[in-house]
Amino acid sequence: MAQTDYYEVLGVNRQDSEEEIRRAFRKKAMEYHPDRNKEPDAEEKFKEINEAYQVLSDSSKRAQYDRFGRAGVNGGGFDRPFDGFDVFGGFGDIFDSFFGEAGGRRSRAPQRGSDLQQRVTLEFEDAAFGIEREIDVSRVEICHQCSGAGNEPGTPINTCETCGGNGQVRRTQRSVFGQFAQVATCPACQGKGSTIENPCGGCRGAGMERRNRKTVVNIPAGIQDGMQVRLTGEGNVGANGGPPGNLYIQVEVRPHRVFERDDYDLLYVLPLNLAEAALGVEKLVPTLEGEDTSLKIPGGTQHGSEFRIRGKGIKHVQNGRKGDLRVYADVQVPKKLSSSQRKLLEELARSFDPSFGQHEAERDQESASVEDPAHQRLDAEGDPWDEDETGDSSVKEKGIFDRIKDVLS
Ligand SMILES: [Zn+2]
Ligand SMILES: [Zn+2]
Q1: Higher pLDDT, 81 or 339
Q2: How many angstroms is it from 208 CA to the middle of ligand 1?
Q3: Which residues of 148-168 are buried (b: 16+ CB within 10 A; e: fewer)?
Q4: How far is the CA of 26 from the centre of ligand 1 (A)?
Protein backbone atom coordinates (compact mmCIF):
# COMPACT_ATOMS: atom_id res chain seq x y z
CA MET A 1 0.00 0.00 0.00
CA ALA A 2 1.23 3.46 -0.85
CA GLN A 3 2.70 5.32 2.08
CA THR A 4 0.81 8.56 1.51
CA ASP A 5 -0.32 10.74 4.35
CA TYR A 6 -3.76 9.83 5.72
CA TYR A 7 -4.86 13.45 5.69
CA GLU A 8 -3.83 13.70 2.05
CA VAL A 9 -5.67 10.48 1.23
CA LEU A 10 -8.93 11.99 2.48
CA GLY A 11 -8.10 15.45 1.19
CA VAL A 12 -8.51 17.11 4.59
CA ASN A 13 -6.39 19.38 6.78
CA ARG A 14 -4.74 18.31 10.00
CA GLN A 15 -6.94 20.61 12.06
CA ASP A 16 -10.22 19.54 10.44
CA SER A 17 -13.03 18.34 12.70
CA GLU A 18 -14.29 14.76 12.97
CA GLU A 19 -17.36 15.80 11.06
CA GLU A 20 -15.30 17.26 8.22
CA ILE A 21 -13.23 14.10 8.09
CA ARG A 22 -16.35 11.95 8.01
CA ARG A 23 -17.79 14.01 5.18
CA ALA A 24 -14.56 13.84 3.20
CA PHE A 25 -14.43 10.08 3.73
CA ARG A 26 -17.96 9.55 2.46
CA LYS A 27 -17.27 11.57 -0.63
CA LYS A 28 -14.01 9.77 -1.41
CA ALA A 29 -15.37 6.34 -0.63
CA MET A 30 -18.29 6.84 -2.96
CA GLU A 31 -15.97 8.07 -5.64
CA TYR A 32 -13.63 5.07 -5.40
CA HIS A 33 -16.06 2.33 -4.54
CA PRO A 34 -15.06 -0.47 -6.95
CA ASP A 35 -18.65 -1.09 -7.94
CA ARG A 36 -18.92 2.44 -9.16
CA ASN A 37 -15.38 3.24 -10.22
CA LYS A 38 -13.91 0.97 -12.91
CA GLU A 39 -10.43 2.50 -12.89
CA PRO A 40 -7.79 -0.20 -12.28
CA ASP A 41 -6.46 1.43 -9.10
CA ALA A 42 -9.87 2.16 -7.61
CA GLU A 43 -9.83 -0.84 -5.33
CA GLU A 44 -6.42 0.04 -3.93
CA LYS A 45 -7.51 3.63 -3.43
CA PHE A 46 -10.69 2.51 -1.75
CA LYS A 47 -8.77 0.42 0.77
CA GLU A 48 -6.45 3.30 1.44
CA ILE A 49 -9.34 5.66 2.04
CA ASN A 50 -10.87 3.22 4.51
CA GLU A 51 -7.59 2.79 6.30
CA ALA A 52 -7.09 6.54 6.58
CA TYR A 53 -10.60 6.97 7.88
CA GLN A 54 -10.19 4.20 10.47
CA VAL A 55 -7.34 6.15 11.97
CA LEU A 56 -8.51 9.70 11.61
CA SER A 57 -12.06 9.05 12.79
CA ASP A 58 -10.79 7.65 16.08
CA SER A 59 -9.51 10.43 18.29
CA SER A 60 -6.90 8.35 20.11
CA LYS A 61 -5.62 6.70 16.92
CA ARG A 62 -5.57 10.09 15.27
CA ALA A 63 -3.50 11.54 18.12
CA GLN A 64 -1.03 8.63 17.81
CA TYR A 65 -0.82 9.12 14.09
CA ASP A 66 -0.25 12.84 14.48
CA ARG A 67 2.68 12.14 16.82
CA PHE A 68 4.27 9.04 15.35
CA GLY A 69 2.93 8.68 11.82
CA ARG A 70 2.00 5.26 10.51
CA ALA A 71 4.42 3.61 12.85
CA GLY A 72 2.28 4.87 15.69
CA VAL A 73 -0.88 3.28 14.42
CA ASN A 74 0.32 0.15 12.62
CA GLY A 75 3.02 -0.89 15.07
CA GLY A 76 0.72 -2.41 17.64
CA GLY A 77 -0.67 -0.70 20.64
CA PHE A 78 -4.20 -1.31 19.41
CA ASP A 79 -6.63 -3.89 20.66
CA ARG A 80 -6.91 -5.37 17.24
CA PRO A 81 -5.70 -4.69 13.75
CA PHE A 82 -8.03 -3.40 11.09
CA ASP A 83 -10.46 -6.06 10.23
CA GLY A 84 -12.99 -6.38 7.51
CA PHE A 85 -15.82 -5.59 9.79
CA ASP A 86 -14.44 -2.27 10.85
CA VAL A 87 -13.37 -1.27 7.41
CA PHE A 88 -16.71 -2.02 5.93
CA GLY A 89 -18.56 -0.62 8.87
CA GLY A 90 -17.96 2.76 7.41
CA PHE A 91 -19.06 1.46 4.10
CA GLY A 92 -22.39 0.41 5.54
CA ASP A 93 -22.87 4.02 6.52
CA ILE A 94 -22.51 5.15 2.97
CA PHE A 95 -25.22 2.80 1.85
CA ASP A 96 -27.48 4.08 4.58
CA SER A 97 -27.17 7.54 3.24
CA PHE A 98 -27.73 6.33 -0.29
CA PHE A 99 -30.78 4.26 0.29
CA GLY A 100 -32.13 5.91 3.38
CA GLU A 101 -32.45 2.70 5.31
CA ALA A 102 -31.79 2.65 8.99
CA GLY A 103 -28.43 0.98 8.92
CA GLY A 104 -26.86 -1.72 11.00
CA ARG A 105 -25.06 -0.07 13.88
CA ARG A 106 -26.96 3.12 13.83
CA SER A 107 -30.37 1.53 14.32
CA ARG A 108 -29.24 0.21 17.69
CA ALA A 109 -27.60 3.42 18.82
CA PRO A 110 -29.62 5.61 21.17
CA GLN A 111 -31.30 8.39 19.27
CA ARG A 112 -32.61 11.63 20.70
CA GLY A 113 -36.38 11.90 20.41
CA SER A 114 -37.94 14.48 18.15
CA ASP A 115 -39.17 17.87 19.36
CA LEU A 116 -42.83 18.70 19.60
CA GLN A 117 -44.56 21.98 19.00
CA GLN A 118 -47.83 23.15 20.39
CA ARG A 119 -49.68 26.41 20.05
CA VAL A 120 -51.29 28.18 22.97
CA THR A 121 -53.56 31.20 22.69
CA LEU A 122 -53.50 33.58 25.63
CA GLU A 123 -55.60 36.51 26.71
CA PHE A 124 -53.71 39.79 26.69
CA GLU A 125 -53.69 40.00 30.50
CA ASP A 126 -52.55 36.39 30.91
CA ALA A 127 -49.53 37.07 28.74
CA ALA A 128 -48.78 40.23 30.72
CA PHE A 129 -49.16 38.72 34.18
CA GLY A 130 -48.16 35.11 33.45
CA ILE A 131 -50.36 32.08 33.91
CA GLU A 132 -50.24 28.36 34.49
CA ARG A 133 -51.84 26.48 31.66
CA GLU A 134 -52.71 22.83 31.36
CA ILE A 135 -52.32 21.58 27.81
CA ASP A 136 -52.97 18.28 26.09
CA VAL A 137 -49.94 16.83 24.39
CA SER A 138 -49.88 13.77 22.17
CA ARG A 139 -46.39 12.34 22.37
CA VAL A 140 -44.45 9.14 21.90
CA GLU A 141 -43.48 7.51 25.17
CA ILE A 142 -41.90 4.26 26.26
CA CYS A 143 -44.59 1.56 26.15
CA HIS A 144 -45.93 1.22 29.67
CA GLN A 145 -46.76 -2.46 29.19
CA CYS A 146 -43.36 -3.78 28.10
CA SER A 147 -41.21 -0.88 29.38
CA GLY A 148 -39.78 -0.54 25.89
CA ALA A 149 -38.56 -4.13 25.46
CA GLY A 150 -41.22 -4.92 22.86
CA ASN A 151 -42.11 -8.39 24.13
CA GLU A 152 -45.29 -9.44 25.87
CA PRO A 153 -44.21 -9.41 29.52
CA GLY A 154 -43.11 -12.89 30.58
CA THR A 155 -42.30 -14.12 27.08
CA PRO A 156 -38.71 -14.62 25.89
CA ILE A 157 -36.52 -12.35 23.80
CA ASN A 158 -34.19 -14.47 21.67
CA THR A 159 -30.88 -13.65 20.12
CA CYS A 160 -31.38 -13.29 16.38
CA GLU A 161 -30.22 -16.41 14.61
CA THR A 162 -29.64 -14.69 11.29
CA CYS A 163 -27.06 -12.19 12.56
CA GLY A 164 -26.02 -13.87 15.78
CA GLY A 165 -27.13 -10.83 17.75
CA ASN A 166 -25.02 -8.09 16.22
CA GLY A 167 -27.75 -6.69 14.02
CA GLN A 168 -25.76 -6.80 10.79
CA VAL A 169 -25.14 -9.32 8.09
CA ARG A 170 -22.19 -9.45 5.70
CA ARG A 171 -22.85 -10.12 2.10
CA THR A 172 -20.00 -11.09 -0.16
CA GLN A 173 -20.09 -9.71 -3.63
CA ARG A 174 -17.96 -10.90 -6.47
CA SER A 175 -16.61 -8.38 -8.90
CA VAL A 176 -13.86 -8.43 -11.49
CA PHE A 177 -11.54 -7.07 -8.84
CA GLY A 178 -12.21 -9.77 -6.36
CA GLN A 179 -14.57 -10.27 -3.48
CA PHE A 180 -16.14 -7.45 -1.55
CA ALA A 181 -17.95 -7.68 1.67
CA GLN A 182 -20.88 -5.47 2.25
CA VAL A 183 -22.43 -5.01 5.65
CA ALA A 184 -26.17 -4.55 5.79
CA THR A 185 -28.81 -4.37 8.46
CA CYS A 186 -30.02 -7.81 9.42
CA PRO A 187 -33.33 -8.35 7.60
CA ALA A 188 -34.59 -10.76 10.25
CA CYS A 189 -34.33 -8.45 13.27
CA GLN A 190 -34.04 -5.03 11.57
CA GLY A 191 -30.74 -4.51 13.34
CA LYS A 192 -31.99 -5.10 16.85
CA GLY A 193 -30.01 -8.30 17.25
CA SER A 194 -32.90 -10.04 18.92
CA THR A 195 -36.25 -11.45 17.99
CA ILE A 196 -39.46 -11.52 19.94
CA GLU A 197 -41.79 -14.49 19.90
CA ASN A 198 -44.78 -12.71 21.33
CA PRO A 199 -44.80 -9.00 20.60
CA CYS A 200 -46.23 -6.74 23.28
CA GLY A 201 -49.95 -6.19 22.84
CA GLY A 202 -49.65 -2.53 23.82
CA CYS A 203 -47.14 -1.45 21.19
CA ARG A 204 -47.07 -4.42 18.78
CA GLY A 205 -43.40 -4.84 19.56
CA ALA A 206 -42.29 -1.29 18.87
CA GLY A 207 -41.50 -0.60 22.51
CA MET A 208 -43.03 2.85 22.17
CA GLU A 209 -46.55 4.13 22.10
CA ARG A 210 -48.34 7.40 21.53
CA ARG A 211 -50.05 8.75 24.59
CA ASN A 212 -52.10 11.83 25.39
CA ARG A 213 -50.74 13.64 28.37
CA LYS A 214 -51.81 16.67 30.30
CA THR A 215 -48.85 18.94 30.86
CA VAL A 216 -48.78 22.08 32.96
CA VAL A 217 -46.98 24.98 31.33
CA ASN A 218 -45.82 27.96 33.32
CA ILE A 219 -46.26 30.94 31.02
CA PRO A 220 -43.93 33.63 32.36
CA ALA A 221 -45.24 37.17 32.90
CA GLY A 222 -44.45 39.49 30.02
CA ILE A 223 -44.40 36.89 27.26
CA GLN A 224 -45.14 38.30 23.83
CA ASP A 225 -47.02 37.07 20.82
CA GLY A 226 -44.72 34.83 18.76
CA MET A 227 -42.44 33.81 21.63
CA GLN A 228 -42.07 30.20 22.64
CA VAL A 229 -41.63 28.39 25.93
CA ARG A 230 -39.34 25.37 25.96
CA LEU A 231 -40.18 22.38 28.11
CA THR A 232 -36.97 20.38 28.14
CA GLY A 233 -37.43 16.65 27.78
CA GLU A 234 -41.20 16.84 27.27
CA GLY A 235 -41.02 15.87 23.58
CA ASN A 236 -41.07 12.41 22.01
CA VAL A 237 -38.99 9.72 23.68
CA GLY A 238 -35.83 8.67 21.84
CA ALA A 239 -35.35 5.32 20.12
CA ASN A 240 -33.08 2.71 21.75
CA GLY A 241 -33.11 4.45 25.10
CA GLY A 242 -32.14 7.84 23.69
CA PRO A 243 -33.14 11.02 25.55
CA PRO A 244 -36.49 12.63 24.77
CA GLY A 245 -36.81 15.74 22.64
CA ASN A 246 -38.23 19.05 23.84
CA LEU A 247 -41.72 20.44 23.78
CA TYR A 248 -42.00 23.97 22.44
CA ILE A 249 -45.06 26.00 23.30
CA GLN A 250 -45.71 28.68 20.72
CA VAL A 251 -47.53 31.60 22.24
CA GLU A 252 -50.22 33.57 20.49
CA VAL A 253 -51.67 36.56 22.33
CA ARG A 254 -55.17 37.90 21.74
CA PRO A 255 -55.54 41.67 21.34
CA HIS A 256 -56.86 43.79 24.18
CA ARG A 257 -60.06 45.80 24.05
CA VAL A 258 -58.45 49.14 24.81
CA PHE A 259 -54.69 48.65 25.12
CA GLU A 260 -52.09 47.93 22.55
CA ARG A 261 -48.65 46.65 23.28
CA ASP A 262 -45.28 47.91 22.10
CA ASP A 263 -42.70 45.55 23.57
CA TYR A 264 -43.19 46.21 27.28
CA ASP A 265 -45.05 49.51 26.98
CA LEU A 266 -48.81 49.71 26.96
CA LEU A 267 -50.42 52.15 24.57
CA TYR A 268 -53.71 53.84 25.29
CA VAL A 269 -55.62 56.35 23.20
CA LEU A 270 -57.36 58.97 25.33
CA PRO A 271 -60.20 60.85 23.65
CA LEU A 272 -60.30 64.57 24.46
CA ASN A 273 -62.79 67.13 23.29
CA LEU A 274 -61.67 70.49 21.97
CA ALA A 275 -62.19 72.23 25.26
CA GLU A 276 -60.33 69.65 27.28
CA ALA A 277 -57.39 69.80 24.91
CA ALA A 278 -57.33 73.58 24.90
CA LEU A 279 -57.92 74.16 28.60
CA GLY A 280 -56.34 71.10 30.09
CA VAL A 281 -58.12 68.61 32.24
CA GLU A 282 -57.49 65.85 34.73
CA LYS A 283 -58.51 62.51 33.28
CA LEU A 284 -58.80 59.00 34.58
CA VAL A 285 -56.86 56.48 32.50
CA PRO A 286 -57.42 52.75 32.85
CA THR A 287 -54.49 50.48 33.73
CA LEU A 288 -54.02 46.81 32.97
CA GLU A 289 -54.09 46.05 36.70
CA GLY A 290 -57.64 47.39 36.74
CA GLU A 291 -57.36 50.51 38.87
CA ASP A 292 -57.69 53.80 37.04
CA THR A 293 -54.88 56.26 37.36
CA SER A 294 -55.28 60.00 37.01
CA LEU A 295 -53.44 61.93 34.34
CA LYS A 296 -53.11 65.71 34.10
CA ILE A 297 -53.60 66.91 30.55
CA PRO A 298 -52.08 70.38 30.24
CA GLY A 299 -53.87 73.14 28.35
CA GLY A 300 -52.91 73.40 24.69
CA THR A 301 -52.48 69.67 24.23
CA GLN A 302 -52.21 68.76 20.56
CA HIS A 303 -53.75 65.77 18.88
CA GLY A 304 -51.34 62.85 19.07
CA SER A 305 -49.38 64.19 22.04
CA GLU A 306 -47.82 61.46 24.15
CA PHE A 307 -47.97 61.23 27.93
CA ARG A 308 -45.90 58.64 29.71
CA ILE A 309 -47.02 57.08 32.98
CA ARG A 310 -43.91 55.34 34.25
CA GLY A 311 -44.04 51.77 35.44
CA LYS A 312 -47.62 51.12 34.44
CA GLY A 313 -46.66 48.94 31.48
CA ILE A 314 -45.84 45.24 31.26
CA LYS A 315 -43.25 43.29 33.22
CA HIS A 316 -40.25 42.32 31.13
CA VAL A 317 -40.23 38.57 30.59
CA GLN A 318 -36.56 38.34 31.54
CA ASN A 319 -35.53 41.13 33.88
CA GLY A 320 -38.94 41.80 35.45
CA ARG A 321 -38.65 45.56 34.93
CA LYS A 322 -41.92 47.21 34.02
CA GLY A 323 -42.54 49.26 30.92
CA ASP A 324 -44.59 52.45 30.75
CA LEU A 325 -48.16 53.28 29.93
CA ARG A 326 -48.05 55.64 26.96
CA VAL A 327 -51.17 57.73 26.57
CA TYR A 328 -51.95 59.42 23.26
CA ALA A 329 -54.27 62.40 23.05
CA ASP A 330 -57.02 61.91 20.54
CA VAL A 331 -58.44 65.42 20.17
CA GLN A 332 -61.84 64.99 18.63
CA VAL A 333 -63.52 67.66 16.59
CA PRO A 334 -67.30 67.42 17.06
CA LYS A 335 -69.12 66.19 13.97
CA LYS A 336 -72.49 67.51 15.09
CA LEU A 337 -73.15 70.70 17.00
CA SER A 338 -76.21 71.82 18.92
CA SER A 339 -77.28 75.39 18.28
CA SER A 340 -75.73 76.59 21.54
CA GLN A 341 -72.46 74.84 20.72
CA ARG A 342 -72.49 76.44 17.30
CA LYS A 343 -73.03 79.89 18.82
CA LEU A 344 -70.19 79.39 21.25
CA LEU A 345 -67.82 78.18 18.59
CA GLU A 346 -68.75 81.05 16.30
CA GLU A 347 -68.01 83.42 19.08
CA LEU A 348 -64.72 81.63 19.66
CA ALA A 349 -63.95 81.82 15.98
CA ARG A 350 -64.38 85.58 15.99
CA SER A 351 -61.97 85.83 18.89
CA PHE A 352 -59.14 84.12 17.04
CA ASP A 353 -56.46 86.03 15.26
CA PRO A 354 -57.58 86.52 11.62
CA SER A 355 -54.02 85.81 10.45
CA PHE A 356 -54.42 82.20 11.60
CA GLY A 357 -53.68 79.84 8.75
CA GLN A 358 -50.91 81.95 7.27
CA HIS A 359 -47.49 80.48 7.01
CA GLU A 360 -46.06 80.26 10.48
CA ALA A 361 -42.98 82.32 9.70
CA GLU A 362 -45.11 85.17 8.35
CA ARG A 363 -47.36 85.05 11.33
CA ASP A 364 -44.45 85.07 13.74
CA GLN A 365 -43.16 88.20 12.07
CA GLU A 366 -46.48 90.03 12.26
CA SER A 367 -47.18 89.18 15.85
CA ALA A 368 -43.64 89.40 17.07
CA SER A 369 -44.51 91.85 19.78
CA VAL A 370 -47.78 90.25 20.80
CA GLU A 371 -47.56 87.48 23.32
CA ASP A 372 -50.91 85.89 22.78
CA PRO A 373 -53.04 87.45 20.03
CA ALA A 374 -56.17 85.46 20.82
CA HIS A 375 -55.98 86.51 24.40
CA GLN A 376 -55.51 90.15 23.59
CA ARG A 377 -58.32 90.36 21.05
CA LEU A 378 -60.72 88.76 23.44
CA ASP A 379 -59.72 91.32 26.01
CA ALA A 380 -60.39 94.19 23.67
CA GLU A 381 -63.71 93.05 22.34
CA GLY A 382 -65.10 91.82 25.60
CA ASP A 383 -67.29 88.83 25.91
CA PRO A 384 -71.06 89.20 25.59
CA TRP A 385 -71.63 85.86 27.33
CA ASP A 386 -69.70 86.96 30.32
CA GLU A 387 -71.14 90.42 30.84
CA ASP A 388 -72.05 89.94 34.45
CA GLU A 389 -68.77 88.25 35.40
CA THR A 390 -65.61 89.92 36.61
CA GLY A 391 -63.53 91.98 34.29
CA ASP A 392 -60.58 89.59 34.57
CA SER A 393 -59.73 88.65 31.02
CA SER A 394 -58.46 85.18 31.84
CA VAL A 395 -61.68 84.33 33.59
CA LYS A 396 -63.63 85.62 30.61
CA GLU A 397 -61.62 83.48 28.20
CA LYS A 398 -62.06 80.45 30.39
CA GLY A 399 -65.76 81.15 30.57
CA ILE A 400 -66.19 80.54 26.86
CA PHE A 401 -64.11 77.36 26.83
CA ASP A 402 -65.71 76.05 29.94
CA ARG A 403 -69.14 76.48 28.55
CA ILE A 404 -68.08 74.77 25.34
CA LYS A 405 -66.65 72.00 27.45
CA ASP A 406 -69.92 71.72 29.37
CA VAL A 407 -72.02 71.36 26.25
CA LEU A 408 -69.57 69.03 24.55
CA SER A 409 -69.12 66.57 27.30
ZN1 LIG B 1 -45.00 -2.62 24.52
ZN1 LIG C 1 -30.63 -10.26 13.18
Answers
A1: 339
A2: 6
A3: bbbbbeeeebeebeebeebbb
A4: 37
